[in-house]
Amino acid sequence: MRRKRMDVLPRACAGLLLLSLLCTTGLCQRSKNNRCVLSRAKRCTECIRVDKDCSFCTDESFEESRCDLRENLLRYGCGEASIVYTRGEMRTQQNFSINTALQRTQVSPQGMFMRLRAGEEMSFNMDVFQPLESPVDLYILMDFSYSMSDDLDNLKSMGQNLAEFLQALTSNYTIGFGKFVDKVSSPQTDMRPEKLREPWNNADSPFSFKNVIRLTSNINYFSQELRKERISGNLDAPEGGFDAILQTAVCKDKIGWRKDSTHLLVFSTESAFHYEADGTNVLAGILARNDEQCHLDTDGTYVYDTKQDYPSVPTLVRLLGQHNIIPIFAVTNHSYSYYEKLRKYFPISEIGVLQEDSSNIVELLRTAFERIRSKMDIRADFIPKAMKTEFTSSMYEKTESGSFHITRGEVGKFNVRVKALEYIGGQHVCSLPEKDRQGVIHVKPTSLSDSLKVTASVICDVCPCEQQQEFNSRKCSFHGDFVCGQCICHTGWRGDTCDCSPASSPNNEACIRPGDVEPCSGRGECLCGKCQCYSEDLTQRFDGAFCQYDVLQCPRTSGFLCNDRGRCSKGACVCESGWEGPGCECPMSNDTCIDSRGGICNNHGRCECGRCICDKASLYTSSTCEISYSLGFQAVCESIRDCVRCQAWGTGNRKGNCSACHLQIQMVEELKKEEASEYCSFQDEEDDCTYHYTLEGDPTVLPNTTVRVQKKKECPPGSFLWLIPLLIFLILLLGLLLLLCWKFCACCKACLALLPCCARGRTVGFKEDHYMLRHSLMSSDHLDTPMVRSGSLKGRDTVRWKINNNVHKQGFTSLAAANPKDLIPYGLSLRLPRLFTQNLVKPDTRECEQLRKEVEENLNDVFKHIPGCHKLQQTKFRLQPNSGKRQDHTIVDTVLTAPRSAKPEIIKVMEKHVSHEAFNDLKVSPGYYTVTSDQDAHGMVEFQEAVELVDVRVPLFIREDDDDEKQLQVEAIDVPTGIAEIGRRLVNITIIKEQASSLITFLQPAYSHSRFDKLAKIPVIREIIDNGKSQVTYRTRDLTAKNGRDYIFTEGDLVFQPGETRKEVQVPLLELTEIDALLHNCQLKQFAIDLLHPKYGAKIGRYPQTTVTIADPEVVDGVPSMAGLSQVSQSPKGRLSAPLNPNAHALSSREIRFSWFPPPGKPLGYKVKYWIQGDPESEARLIDVKAPSAELSNLYPFCDYEMQVCAYNAMGEGAYSDIIHCRTLEAVPSEPGRLAFNVVSSTVTQLSWAEPAETNGEITAYEVSYGLVNEENAPIGPMKKVLVEDPKKRMVLIENLRESQPYRYMVKARNGAGWGPEREATINLATQPKRPMSIPIIPDVPIIDAEGGEDYDSYLMYSADVLRSPAGSKHPSVSDDSEHLLNGRVDFSFPGSGSGTLTRTTNASYHQLTSHMQQEHRVLGSSSLTRDYSTMLMGHDSRLPLGVPDTPTRLVFSALGPTSLKVSWQEPHCEKEVQGYSVQYQLLNGGEVHRLTIPNPSQNSVVVEDLLPNHSYIFKVKAQSEEGWGPEREGVITIESQVDPQSPLNPVPGSPFTLSTPSAPGPLVFTALSPDSLQLSWERPRKPNGSILGYMVTCEMLHGGGEPRNIYVEGDNPETTLTVPHLSENVPYKFKVQAKTTQGFGPEREGIITIESQDGGTFSQFGGQQYMREEVYNFPTEYSTKTSISHSSLDPHFTDGMLMTTQRVESASSTLTKQVTKEFVSRTVMSSGTLTKQMERQFYEA
User: Fold this and answer.
1) Over residues 79-105, mean pLDDT
2) Closest CA relative to residue 284, chosen from 205, 183, 206, 209
3) Most C-beta atoms within 10 A of its C-beta, which of 17, 167, 623, 705?
4) Which of 1131, 1135, 1138 is nearest to 1006 (CA)?
5) Looking at residue 1522, what DSSP letter applies?
6) Residue 994's pLDDT is what?
7) How far apart are CA 785 and CA 981, in angstroms?
């Protein structure tokens, strides 16, 4: 048994070795798929265009596939002369060698020519030489806006410094200067005449760009001209620098760029930039694109600034590259982030931080130029569309931007690869125009004026044989054309010689093989007596004269058919050249049998089938029959070890008994490598010496084994035990010295401070002592606070710091003490000793994942010893700028959750391990860490040697419940390392929150209460701006009244929930003390109540405090009075004081009761005046009453009123009381506004209406009623009613109306008082014009099925609902969507789509919809566009046979992702049972048709995967019964996941510009106001990506005609409404709305609307408006917008004598209107002579 196993092992090992050799030589690799054969190309030209390696055989007798690889055609018998094969070619046209003695840039070769087949790639080498010193052209382009005035002053004094800088770079230089501001148009520039003459004091007129100093080598002339320049100015912050950069590039001669010099453009500014289509040009009326031409006049001034738009970023990148210009952006910290992003688009560019006064510009240029000198970019211009290029180098490293790090002064070697593409956009390149297939490519390195010109083209020649075809050839039986060796049969003929047609008589007997029954073995079709074998998957499956052979039934090797080295033909393998055997398993060469000496099988065997068959095989025989110990060498050495020791030296375990050893020992002086490939080495335990030996022969046959043993052993030197005590003594001495050094270092700092020379040592401290931040402008929750070091910069200092949050609250006690066991997140930051790379900010990269894992494993291991600590989370990596010499190193930020009490221990652990520079195996940099808790942070920063400034990155603890103004304090604690003293120790940070969501105030500034009331109830009101939660703190304070004697101290929080507007502060009052009673209460007792610390966006309003007077009532002439006030409140000279405690409450919608206490004295009566809140008091109504109360009547419903009262006597009127506010109750609303019908078809309409002109309260619902009427307008049958409970959705879609029948539609509104009157209209849809497009069906718009049965609880459902039939319905429901729903709601977010989601909300009940509408839906990932295309199909066709299903009654598309879709439908009407469905879909523009069969009739939905995003698909669904298939329901769907890359909204093709623009606004909602005007509203974008500056609205006729109207609407509000006049009835209009931020305009939201003409019903001129707050921002005055905010900023601009403000203005033609508001009254007389008054809440006719 043992011998058998030993025999098997050598064979297995030999097999493995052979297999490895085969794989090494490439013989075991499978050949790639043969595209030539798979294409099944029939014609020659078609074949050679399939692949660059395809050839075509024109041999008439050739029977195999004619389109194949050239070597295959030759192997299968096609002659060399019969093969058509097109080769690409490449040759050098011009090549002058590089002369390094010439000090200029050079390239070699200079010209190349190449022709390539589609898919072919060619490459050649290119040499580039850049000298050590080259000419330099430096052009400074400077921002001349007024904020750069100090920068200009500094630059004027730096002429000599610039000259010295350039001379240090090169002896051959020129310098020039240009200036820019912005386009001289509004809104970029103040266009008032006086500002055009002199925008600022001692400033030049505004301009766009001027070339001031042409490039010159005369530095004195440059300095003189520069001193003459004066600053200019403009309005908006972004500047027009892009115009200036483009003109600088294209005006080559006027600027003075030289041919062979390095062109540097220094762009200096402190502002951001305008770019193409950022919206400002639209406001200025400049719409033409930039023509990229030079437009400088003789004075060097750019004259086309007001004629064309700014250039785009890709345009600048392309033009600067073509003109060899390298930009250097010298910008301040304010705009650094913008230009840092912009710089990445240029292959070579630099950026530097410019100090506020530009004093460091020379140093900045020096640094930038040194970086530029080491880079080279190679670009290819004018590349044909069908080609692409790539550049590599084996000498130089390539940067992320694509440039190379080079060494000047040497010839650089580069490789240029040119590839011809095969397909572009699904179209073969040979079908492209000729200009896209050929051209001259300019390959040009940076700063090189000359370029390598490559003349390249794609070979699209036609095969010559196709131009010599024989028509109606005899060879083709006159039924076909003989082309390229084969017959191309005419229609109706087939066969190799076109001699067979379907009309020919069948001859099956000739196709039956002897012994068979079926023709063609059942594997083919008999045509004209010949078998045509069946094929599978476009490949021939059977062959042979009778199709008797299966091409898959040949011998296999290792599972591969014919070893993948041949093909199966007629039941046998036809091997490729070099292979043989039944399964092509044997190579014909002996390469795998060659031994190490070059022989065959070591002359101990024979080579068969690529393997050695050895004469004698053993465990140690290799695959080439050689003895090899590598297969068990250590075992052999070990087995003979004892015998070698015994026979050679007489030692070891066999000592004295060597007779059992059968080795032939041979002692040698030295073992030579050529004698043995392996050595055995062991250590002798008796003398610790190492001995070596080797063996020859087969160890399994011991007598034949010779062992060579090296005579000399390798022994260790003699004993050195005497050194051990000496080493111990030296170690102890070294430890003592280190201890002394440590003690000295601990006190050296104090000692050095006492020395006179060190008394004025260096200091460290914060640069500033205070920072004020506005919350709305903050882009980060951290602040980089600079810390500076002065004095000697030698040596290293570390500084510990801490920050405390909410230091402004430290005087007050906390309401609840913090629990030390509470778990809080601690933010930890460390610096790692490794350079930062961009991969670390991408969480899915391997580098980031590995480093994150390493950090978390080591830190978790350290912190697990602190009780209560959890594992780290949220580990991220970043850079920390301004951190000295380690600012390129990686900062790791992570979060550790631990108890509050663990903070000291965490800080201690951090300091300890940072000082040791390691957390276990994780290395960290010393001197830097941060520990952030919930209210404070501790950290350390490091000043390395020669470092003057570092940033302390302090957290700002931004919380939602922060006060409107909070303060933080950063403190430098100490300097643990170094000798520096702390200078400025503290820095305070103030954060101001703006844009309050509500105003909270006391109702009055003073109140009076009797002690007998026992409780003073003081009202606090909230004015809601943005509905939400608000909170404020109240606290009482002593004045003359004392806590504990007159009242009880009270403090607490008032929390206003959404919708709440009123709260009370209750203060307990105490009875009189005996002392006060004895003094007859002569002293006035008062205390104050303060409102403090508003939260959740609230602000303190008009009365932040109120004074409460404590008084006792007494009777004065039978009337209650306030005796306590009689002595102090009486007005002088007998005049009465103000009535006390005025109070008002509403009795009804038109009445208010107003009451008060009489003042001291004897009043004869009272005068009450009241007015609408917001109106001036001069318009108040005045009534006279005798009693201390009055009833105010004939008021407006749900209206805010203000009122006050005064008493009068014989001396006249007394003082008026404080103003009291009161609102009347609600009344039922008026009828809704005009009804608008968007007719989709004769049975489907979209009905919308306007809010009632007089809402008389808050609208809570609408009711829509509709029903059939006859010719006399009398109802036929019952009216159907639908309740729309969301008052914002003033639109319904009604389907399945009866065709050609008139319907009456009625709509009424409801508020808190009940239902109002109805607005009605009668319309016959069949009489209305049909259009192919309807307005967008926005999400959640109610859909009504007019055919719904009476058993329905409701007829309403929403367009985003999951459709389901009611219980008991005869129609099965749409399949359940519960697998996709969570808590009734599911959001679909598509990757790369920004923030867009598709939301579906499930309702409690679902209802059948029976629509017959073909729809196209666009489901948007980015919510940028929504369209519905509706084309009506008729209902059940009466011509269908009985029992055949009708059309499925609705298609509903639900996007599950950017490439998957759920399609749902409802069961159609059918007299018999439905048996299943068929779903068919394909691309709308054609393509493969996909069919899905659904045999389960209860399955009403299907999920379709692997769709293409941004492609339109057409779906068809039909049902089947036992009577057959019914008609199809069609629908078109597009899943859009992002903005079209070709859109101008995407400035950089293929790489979206990183300055984020907002997403699309919310869905557009249209409301008709009159036959020629409508109201358009939309919501704020879901992802604004910054503050919304406004919106651009475009209106145009859908089918052309008239000029488009552009309307700009300012403001950032949750909802905006625009009134658009001057429209036409029955004309479809397209509206587009884009949001704008500082980064430009976002994608469009599109909608289409038609105002239908209608009969009946008068139109109220106010009927369409939802009057809340109106804003007019641009003229003409007929445009008005409505927003939902309640405050405005007054910032008037005067243009042509017309006042334009951002106040709310409603403009109407000769109409006096009034609106009630809570905050302000604005009066503006517009140019049309319209007087407008505005106030919030309700509109009333004056």
Assistant:
1) 84
2) 183
3) 623
4) 1138
5) T
6) 67
7) 19
Q: Is 47 within 8 Å of 41 (Cβ atoms)? A: yes
Contact 1662, 1741 (CB under 8 A): yes
As beta bridge partners, residue 1154 has 1144, 1190
Q: Return the structure tokens found at 1261.
A: 């619902």
Q: Residue 482 pairs with which residues in a beta bridge?
A: 470, 487
Give dist(CA 1589, CA 1585) in Å, integer. Answer: 11
Bridge partners, residue 67, by sequence? 56
Would you give the DSSP letter of residue 478? T
Widest CA span in the chain = 152
Say how many Å lie between the first and final Cα of the chain, rounded.
117
Q: Which residues pair with 556 in a beta bridge?
A: 561
Opening angle at CA 1387, ends 1416 and 872, nearest 5: 150
Q: Answer for the pair 1304, 1277: CB distance below 8 angstroms, yes or no.
A: no
Q: Give every strand in the sheet of 1573-1579, ordered side by side.
A: 1565-1570, 1573-1579, 1615-1620, 1680-1683, 1669-1671
User: What distance in Å separates the CA atoms of residue 1011 and residue 1685, rounded to the nearest whole number?
Assistant: 43
The token duo for 431 is 């079908």
What is the spatial distance between Cα 202 and Cα 120, in angstroms, rounded to a whole number?
Answer: 66
- pTM for this prediction: 0.37
Phi, psi of 601 (to 5 degrees): 55, 30
pLDDT tens track for 130-142:
777 778 889 999 8
Angle 1150-1182-1140 from CA coordinates, rounded to 5°: 90
φ and ψ of 1476, to 5 deg: 170, -175
Highest mean pLDDT among 369-373, 378-382, 1010-1014: 378-382
d(CA 1065, CA 1048): 13
Q: Beta-carbon neighbour count of residue 115 at 10 Å?
A: 20
DSSP letter string over 438-468?
EEEEEEEETT-SS-EEEEEEE--PPPGGGGG
Pick the more confident residue, 1028 or 1081.
1028
Q: How far is the C-alpha of 1635 from the C-alpha of 1557, rounded, in Å?
A: 8
Written as six digits, the tokens of 207 are 């301009």
pLDDT confidence bin for 332, thresholds 50/70/90: confident
Triad 1314, 1315, 1320: Cα angle to 5°: 170
Q: Whole-angstrom Cα distance, residue 72 to residue 66? A: 10
Structure tokens belonging to residue 1357: 């459902």
The residues near 1221 (Cβ < 8 Å, ≥ 6 apart) are 1003, 1021, 1144, 1173, 1200, 1201, 1202
The amino acid sitting at 534 is Y
Write the burial class of residue 430 (CB in 10 Å: 0-12 exposed, 13-18 middle, 19+ buried). middle
What is the 8-class DSSP label of residue 1189?
E
| 3-state DSSP helix/strand/coil % of the chain, to nearest 5 | 15, 35, 45
pLDDT in tens, 1093-1114: 888 878 888 888 999 988 764 4
* Residue 1371 CA: distances (Å) to CA of 1078, 1405, 1525, 1571: 90, 15, 18, 42
User: Which neighbouring-strand residues pair with 1479?
Assistant: 1492, 1517
User: What is each CA distance from 763 to 757, 767, 1024, in whole angstroms?
Assistant: 15, 12, 52
Is 80 exceeded by the pLDDT of residue 1545? Answer: no
Q: What is the rounded average pLDDT for all residues in the chain?
A: 76
| CB-based contacts of 1202, cutoff 8 Å, min separation 6 | 1170, 1171, 1172, 1173, 1219, 1220, 1221
Closest Cα to residue 173, out of 406, 412, 403, 365?
365
CB 1514 within 8 A of CB 1482: yes
Task: Give residue 1083's pLDDT band: very low, low, confident or very high (50, 70, 90).
Answer: low
DSSP-derived 3-state class of residue 1080: coil
Angle at CA of residue 655, ends 652 and 656, nearest 5°: 175
3-state secondary structure of 1056: strand
Distance of CA 1157 to the CA centre of its chain: 64
